[in-house]
Design a protein that fits this description.
The protein is α+β, with helices and mostly antiparallel strands. The strands form two sheets. Strands 3, 4, 5, 6 and 7 form a five-stranded mixed beta sheet that branches. Strand 6 (218-220) and strand 7 (223-235) form a beta hairpin. The protein has helices at residues 11-36, 142-160, 165-169, 199-210, and strands spanning 46-52, 55-61, 122-123, 174-182, 188-195, 218-220, 223-235. Residues 39-46, 78-87 and 89-100 have low confidence and may be disordered. The longest helix is centred in the first third of the chain and has 26 residues, at 11-36. The chain has a domain at 122-235: TolA/TonB C-terminal domain (2-Layer Sandwich).
Length: 238
Protein backbone atom coordinates (compact mmCIF):
# COMPACT_ATOMS: atom_id res chain seq x y z
CA UNK A 1 0.00 0.00 0.00
CA UNK A 2 1.49 3.38 -0.99
CA UNK A 3 1.62 6.14 1.64
CA UNK A 4 0.64 9.65 0.51
CA UNK A 5 1.44 12.85 2.40
CA UNK A 6 -1.49 15.12 3.19
CA UNK A 7 -1.27 18.62 1.79
CA UNK A 8 -2.36 20.07 5.17
CA UNK A 9 0.52 18.32 6.90
CA UNK A 10 3.11 19.63 4.45
CA UNK A 11 5.01 22.29 6.49
CA UNK A 12 7.36 23.29 3.69
CA UNK A 13 4.53 24.81 1.75
CA UNK A 14 3.58 27.12 4.66
CA UNK A 15 7.17 28.08 5.51
CA UNK A 16 7.24 31.24 3.42
CA UNK A 17 3.83 32.36 4.66
CA UNK A 18 4.98 32.14 8.28
CA UNK A 19 8.15 33.99 7.53
CA UNK A 20 6.28 36.85 5.84
CA UNK A 21 3.82 37.09 8.74
CA UNK A 22 6.65 37.16 11.28
CA UNK A 23 8.52 39.86 9.39
CA UNK A 24 5.44 42.10 9.29
CA UNK A 25 4.93 41.65 13.01
CA UNK A 26 8.51 42.63 13.81
CA UNK A 27 8.35 45.72 11.63
CA UNK A 28 5.07 46.77 13.28
CA UNK A 29 6.58 46.44 16.76
CA UNK A 30 9.66 48.45 15.78
CA UNK A 31 7.53 51.23 14.33
CA UNK A 32 5.34 51.42 17.45
CA UNK A 33 8.36 51.46 19.78
CA UNK A 34 10.04 54.23 17.71
CA UNK A 35 6.91 56.42 17.93
CA UNK A 36 6.44 55.87 21.68
CA UNK A 37 10.06 56.28 22.74
CA UNK A 38 10.99 59.62 21.11
CA UNK A 39 13.77 61.28 23.07
CA UNK A 40 15.51 64.56 22.72
CA UNK A 41 18.82 63.73 21.12
CA UNK A 42 20.49 66.56 23.03
CA UNK A 43 19.55 64.96 26.40
CA UNK A 44 20.84 61.49 25.58
CA UNK A 45 24.13 60.63 27.14
CA UNK A 46 26.30 57.97 25.65
CA UNK A 47 28.03 55.43 27.79
CA UNK A 48 30.94 53.26 27.03
CA UNK A 49 32.65 50.55 28.93
CA UNK A 50 36.30 50.86 29.79
CA UNK A 51 38.23 47.96 31.16
CA UNK A 52 40.27 48.97 34.20
CA UNK A 53 42.26 46.02 35.37
CA UNK A 54 39.80 43.13 35.70
CA UNK A 55 36.74 45.36 36.05
CA UNK A 56 34.56 47.06 33.47
CA UNK A 57 33.77 50.69 34.26
CA UNK A 58 31.08 52.64 32.48
CA UNK A 59 32.08 56.14 31.41
CA UNK A 60 29.45 58.71 30.65
CA UNK A 61 30.13 60.90 27.65
CA UNK A 62 28.36 64.23 27.85
CA UNK A 63 26.79 65.39 24.62
CA UNK A 64 28.66 68.09 22.81
CA UNK A 65 27.29 71.57 23.40
CA UNK A 66 26.79 73.60 20.24
CA UNK A 67 28.68 76.95 20.16
CA UNK A 68 26.71 80.02 21.25
CA UNK A 69 25.20 82.10 18.48
CA UNK A 70 27.27 85.12 17.35
CA UNK A 71 26.43 88.45 19.03
CA UNK A 72 24.09 90.73 17.12
CA UNK A 73 25.76 93.47 15.07
CA UNK A 74 26.13 96.85 16.83
CA UNK A 75 23.48 99.42 16.05
CA UNK A 76 24.44 102.03 13.46
CA UNK A 77 25.91 105.24 14.95
CA UNK A 78 23.48 108.01 15.46
CA UNK A 79 24.07 111.15 13.46
CA UNK A 80 23.65 114.45 15.24
CA UNK A 81 21.40 116.78 13.35
CA UNK A 82 21.93 120.49 13.85
CA UNK A 83 18.59 122.16 14.08
CA UNK A 84 18.40 125.92 13.55
CA UNK A 85 15.70 127.48 15.69
CA UNK A 86 14.49 130.93 14.81
CA UNK A 87 14.63 133.30 17.76
CA UNK A 88 11.93 135.89 17.80
CA UNK A 89 13.38 137.75 20.79
CA UNK A 90 14.32 141.37 20.20
CA UNK A 91 18.04 142.11 20.05
CA UNK A 92 19.01 145.10 22.16
CA UNK A 93 21.77 147.21 20.68
CA UNK A 94 24.11 149.00 23.06
CA UNK A 95 25.13 152.54 22.19
CA UNK A 96 28.76 152.88 23.24
CA UNK A 97 29.14 156.52 22.16
CA UNK A 98 30.22 158.63 25.12
CA UNK A 99 29.96 162.37 25.35
CA UNK A 100 33.04 164.20 26.64
CA UNK A 101 32.67 167.36 28.60
CA UNK A 102 34.83 170.10 27.12
CA UNK A 103 35.59 171.41 30.58
CA UNK A 104 36.77 168.03 31.86
CA UNK A 105 40.55 167.82 31.92
CA UNK A 106 42.08 164.84 30.17
CA UNK A 107 45.28 163.60 31.65
CA UNK A 108 48.11 162.96 29.25
CA UNK A 109 49.59 159.48 29.40
CA UNK A 110 53.33 159.41 29.23
CA UNK A 111 54.84 156.33 27.62
CA UNK A 112 58.38 155.55 28.59
CA UNK A 113 60.46 154.19 25.76
CA UNK A 114 61.98 150.84 26.56
CA UNK A 115 65.72 150.90 26.56
CA UNK A 116 67.13 148.85 23.72
CA UNK A 117 69.17 145.92 24.98
CA UNK A 118 72.37 145.63 23.00
CA UNK A 119 73.91 142.19 22.94
CA UNK A 120 77.52 142.72 21.97
CA UNK A 121 79.00 140.04 19.70
CA UNK A 122 82.08 138.05 20.72
CA UNK A 123 85.02 138.77 18.43
CA UNK A 124 88.70 137.81 18.21
CA UNK A 125 89.76 140.99 16.35
CA UNK A 126 88.20 144.45 16.34
CA UNK A 127 88.86 147.90 14.93
CA UNK A 128 89.85 149.03 18.42
CA UNK A 129 91.28 146.29 20.65
CA UNK A 130 90.96 146.33 24.46
CA UNK A 131 93.50 148.53 26.21
CA UNK A 132 95.32 147.56 29.41
CA UNK A 133 94.99 150.41 31.95
CA UNK A 134 97.92 152.69 32.63
CA UNK A 135 100.87 152.95 30.30
CA UNK A 136 99.16 151.43 27.24
CA UNK A 137 96.37 154.01 27.34
CA UNK A 138 98.91 156.75 26.64
CA UNK A 139 99.89 155.25 23.25
CA UNK A 140 98.16 156.87 20.28
CA UNK A 141 98.93 154.26 17.62
CA UNK A 142 96.32 151.47 17.69
CA UNK A 143 98.73 148.70 16.65
CA UNK A 144 101.35 149.67 19.22
CA UNK A 145 98.64 150.02 21.83
CA UNK A 146 97.50 146.44 21.13
CA UNK A 147 101.05 145.09 21.39
CA UNK A 148 101.48 146.90 24.70
CA UNK A 149 98.23 145.39 26.02
CA UNK A 150 99.17 141.82 25.04
CA UNK A 151 102.55 142.13 26.74
CA UNK A 152 100.97 143.54 29.91
CA UNK A 153 98.44 140.66 30.01
CA UNK A 154 101.15 137.96 29.76
CA UNK A 155 103.37 139.60 32.37
CA UNK A 156 100.47 140.17 34.78
CA UNK A 157 99.11 136.61 34.57
CA UNK A 158 102.57 135.03 34.74
CA UNK A 159 103.54 137.00 37.84
CA UNK A 160 100.23 136.27 39.61
CA UNK A 161 100.18 132.52 38.89
CA UNK A 162 101.33 130.59 41.96
CA UNK A 163 103.17 127.28 41.56
CA UNK A 164 101.24 124.79 43.73
CA UNK A 165 103.30 122.59 46.08
CA UNK A 166 101.54 119.42 44.94
CA UNK A 167 102.62 120.19 41.35
CA UNK A 168 106.21 120.78 42.46
CA UNK A 169 106.33 117.57 44.50
CA UNK A 170 105.05 115.51 41.55
CA UNK A 171 107.15 117.32 38.95
CA UNK A 172 104.23 118.76 36.96
CA UNK A 173 105.32 121.51 34.57
CA UNK A 174 104.48 122.91 31.14
CA UNK A 175 102.11 125.42 29.52
CA UNK A 176 98.44 125.84 30.35
CA UNK A 177 96.49 127.29 27.41
CA UNK A 178 93.30 129.14 28.28
CA UNK A 179 90.82 131.67 26.90
CA UNK A 180 89.01 134.58 28.53
CA UNK A 181 86.71 137.38 27.40
CA UNK A 182 86.96 141.12 27.93
CA UNK A 183 83.28 142.14 27.74
CA UNK A 184 81.74 145.35 26.38
CA UNK A 185 82.26 146.99 29.79
CA UNK A 186 85.95 146.01 30.01
CA UNK A 187 85.47 143.30 32.65
CA UNK A 188 87.28 139.95 32.44
CA UNK A 189 85.30 136.66 32.62
CA UNK A 190 84.38 133.36 30.95
CA UNK A 191 87.76 131.75 31.59
CA UNK A 192 88.08 128.32 29.95
CA UNK A 193 90.98 125.84 29.87
CA UNK A 194 91.87 124.77 26.32
CA UNK A 195 94.77 122.52 27.26
CA UNK A 196 95.68 121.76 30.85
CA UNK A 197 98.47 119.96 32.70
CA UNK A 198 97.13 119.20 36.16
CA UNK A 199 94.11 120.49 38.04
CA UNK A 200 96.30 122.39 40.51
CA UNK A 201 98.15 124.22 37.70
CA UNK A 202 94.94 124.82 35.72
CA UNK A 203 93.27 126.37 38.77
CA UNK A 204 96.30 128.56 39.46
CA UNK A 205 96.29 129.94 35.90
CA UNK A 206 92.53 130.58 36.04
CA UNK A 207 92.82 132.54 39.30
CA UNK A 208 95.65 134.66 37.86
CA UNK A 209 93.54 135.63 34.82
CA UNK A 210 90.57 136.58 37.01
CA UNK A 211 92.83 139.09 38.81
CA UNK A 212 93.31 141.14 35.62
CA UNK A 213 92.20 144.79 35.99
CA UNK A 214 89.37 146.45 34.09
CA UNK A 215 90.22 147.23 30.45
CA UNK A 216 89.11 149.88 28.03
CA UNK A 217 86.70 147.68 26.00
CA UNK A 218 87.13 146.87 22.33
CA UNK A 219 84.91 148.60 19.77
CA UNK A 220 83.67 147.88 16.26
CA UNK A 221 82.08 150.64 14.13
CA UNK A 222 81.81 152.80 17.21
CA UNK A 223 80.00 150.19 19.35
CA UNK A 224 81.61 148.26 22.23
CA UNK A 225 82.09 144.54 21.61
CA UNK A 226 83.27 141.49 23.51
CA UNK A 227 86.72 140.22 22.62
CA UNK A 228 88.18 136.78 23.30
CA UNK A 229 91.86 136.29 24.16
CA UNK A 230 93.86 133.05 24.08
CA UNK A 231 97.06 133.01 26.14
CA UNK A 232 99.58 130.47 27.52
CA UNK A 233 100.67 130.36 31.17
CA UNK A 234 104.08 128.73 31.57
CA UNK A 235 104.90 126.63 34.65
CA UNK A 236 108.55 125.54 34.80
CA UNK A 237 110.48 123.91 37.63
CA UNK A 238 113.93 125.31 38.44
Amino acid sequence: MELKKSKDADLERKKFSWLALGGCSVLSLLLVSFVITSYDIKEIEETRKIKVGDELVEETIAPSTPPPPPPPPPPPPTTAVLEIVEDDEEIIELNLDMEIDDEEEIEDVNYEEEEEIYDAPIMTRAERMPVFPGECQQIANAKEQDQCTQGKIINFVQSNADYPEIAKENGFQGKVFLTFIVDENGNVGNVEILKGIHKSLDDSATKAVMKLPKFTPASQRGKPVKLKYTIPVNFKLR
